[in-house]
Structures are given as structure tokens and as C-alpha cells.
Request: fold
Amino acid sequence: MIARLRHLLRDRRGVASVEFALMTPIIFALMFTAFEGGHYLWTEHKVIKGVRQGARYAARLPFASYDCSTTTPTGTTAIPLDNIKNVVRTGIPSGQAFPKVKGWTNGDITITVSCNSSFDKGLYSNTTGGAPRVLVSTVVTYPAILGLLGFDTSNVKVRAQAQAAVAGV
Reply:
């Protein structure tokens, strides 16, 4: 009996499969962490680029769209807020494309117009109230990969904002 036990303790067959079985959960955890981290960074990149693109689009609207005497979107032509939000979400003013991030809606996007009265020279010499600035900001619920596996990721948000001075091109 003791000889058989010694033989069993010296036997090395199957060691690799036991080591693999012990390492598999750690490998999967590292793999999912890398996937989720990469997905988060890609989503954040798309949100940041979308907000910048929307701010640039709003900055190229004519000066007549902005009324700096009241800092509200009024004038001869109103600011096309839906077009700006569509550019942020989809890259197209008509919004006839899929959003860059799943679940991103126009309601998640905020557009604020402010005016800097100290700039009334040069390009802004014919504007009332100074230079209009557009701030585009958003908070998007992150569509996590781990959310598909049953983890609660509803509190994870991606935030971005961009500001541009209206050039009235």
C-alpha cells in the first residue's frame, strides 16, 4: 500500500491539464477586462469626436442664428438644434444614420449658447453683444459588454463637451 502511494506521488502525468484548469478563470478574467477596457476607450473616443464635430458644425452657422442680446437661440433664423444634435450622434445633420454609440439619443445632448461681450472687434464687430460661443455637452450611458453577461453597468457614463466660437461662415 505504501509503495503504491509513493508511486502515485511521483506520477507527473496530467500536471499540465491541472495547471490549465487552475489558470483558465484568470485568463478569461484578463481577456474580458482587456475587451471591456478597449470597448470603453473606443466608445469614449466616438463620443468625444461626435461632440467636437457638433460644436464645429454649430460654429459655422451664420451669425443671424445667434442673438447675443438675450443669449437664446433666436434671430432671423433659429439655430437648428436638432441638426446639431444629429451631427453629434450620427455625423449627419438629417440624422438618417445609426448613432455612433448604441442607445445615444438627442435627449442626451445639451447645447448652450453664451456670448463674450469683450470680443467686439474684427470678425465680431458687426454682432450685437459680442462673440457667440456654443457649448455642446453630453452624458451617454455606456453600453458595456459585461452588461450582456448580467452585470449591472447602468451607472457607467461617458461624458464629453466641446466649445467653439461662432465664425458665421
